[in-house]
Specification:
Layout (H helix, E strand, L loop, with lengths): L3 E10 L2 E11 L15 H9 L6 E6 L2 E4 L1
Antiparallel strand pairs: 1-2, 1-3, 3-4
């Protein structure tokens, strides 16, 4: 089981899509880094994981418990 699971995350601000269909699993003990150019959705993804933003679509599970979606 993944410690963190994001499935089909979508987030837009107005008419501008920021995160488009992100699916990611991070297993216990793994170290993950998000890399990409400015404006590609790294911070928005982390804000959704932290619960500071709500995804427009998709699911977030932490420790097997659904926390968003």
């Amino acid at each position: 089981m993944a410690a963190i699971s994001m499935e089909g995350l979508f987030k837009s601000f107005g008419a501008t899509p920021v995160v488009r269909g992100l699916t990611l699993e991070v297993h216990e003990g793994e170290l993950v880094s998000l890399l990409g150019p400015s404006g590609c959705g790294k911070t928005t993804t982390l804000r959704m994981l932290a619960g500071l933003e709500h995804p427009d679509a998709g699911l977030i599970h932490i420790g097997g418990e659904q926390v968003a979606g």
